Amino acid sequence: MSRTKTKKETAVFREVYPIQEPYVYAAITKEKETGRIRYEVIEPTLLEEEKEKLKEIKKILMDEIDVSLKEIETREKAEEYLKRKFHEVIRNYKIKIAEEAKDKLLYYIIRDFPGYGKIDPLMKDRLI
User: What is the pTM of this model?
Assistant: First the structure.
């Protein structure tokens, strides 16, 4: 049985700037080996347990969210509504989440529900 070594390329950060502080940053890097310039999005890192909790909360929210478009006229109102529902779901379903993880999970819920999902940081980047 042969093992393949994976060589991790190193990159040099040329510029890092905030897209949505304190959660999302853009990094412009240059790969040492190839000299290629890359754009990378830096988002909060979730532990496996946090990923499972996020999946569980999203499922509950999908079942429980019941709003009309008249109630949610702006993105800000949608975010406020989701924040309230997020805390309500955690309380009502007795979901145990570390205090420091709540903001990270809430970021992903807002990113994925009224936002654009994985491309949300790109859509918010004023330099793109």
Answer: 0.83
